[in-house]
Write a structure and sequence with these properties.
By secondary structure, this protein is α/β, with parallel strands linked by helices. The protein has a single domain (14-126), classed as 3-Layer(aba) Sandwich (Rossmann fold), CATH 3.40.50.10540. It has five helices and seven strands. It has helices at residues 23-33, 61-67, 80-91, 104-107, 112-118, and strands at 14-18, 37-42, 55-56, 59-60, 71-74, 95-98, 123-126. It has a five-stranded parallel sheet, with helices on one face. A two-stranded antiparallel ribbon has the order 3-4. Helix 1 links the parallel strand 1 and strand 2 (37-42). The mean pLDDT is 88.
Length: 146
């Protein structure tokens, strides 16, 4: 180890981020700062924060701040090839971080059991404003910290 390349606690950990708006992107940014490799999965239209001001030129300041240092890939996860590519990435990753409403990943055929078939050690981290099981679980929530 040299002073110019210190080891970080999450060096060697790969995280797939399927996230919208703020809470999960902020969480994966913190993990990236701790050394994790973060791969942001975006849809063809791009991430929601790309359209949120303020802007410098045509770049959203919020998008740049929440996604600095992350890798990204565009996948159509509704298409069979996109689903296969996502599951291929799950196979070589340590964590999947998502912030959809509860049940959305399962509806997309990316539930925990589906991902465990390609990577039995995968960790699924789900961020939601009102929990996964309570009476308000299906309510939307937008906040940088949940």
């Amino acid at each position: 180890m040299t002073p110019s390349s210190p080891t970080k606690v999450l060096d060697g950990v790969r995280i797939l981020e399927l996230a919208r708006w703020q809470a999960a992107p902020r969480g994966s940014l913190i993990l990236r700062d701790m050394g994790a490799e973060v791969i942001k999965i975006e849809w063809r239209k791009g991430a929601d924060l790309r359209d949120s001001g303020p802007f410098v030129g045509d770049m959203s300041v919020q998008f740049a701040a929440y996604n600095r240092g992350k890798k990204s890939i565009t996948l159509n996860t509704r298409h069979p090839k996109g689903k296969r590519l996502f599951l291929d990435l799950v196979g070589v990753s340590d964590v999947v971080l998502e912030n959809f409403r509860p049940g959305t990943m399962k509806d997309m055929e990316f539930g925990y059991d589906d991902m465990c078939q390609v990577n039995p050690g995968i960790i699924l981290a789900s961020v939601s404003g009102f929990g996964q099981y309570g009476p308000y679980r299906d309510r939307q929530c937008f906040d940088p910290i949940i």
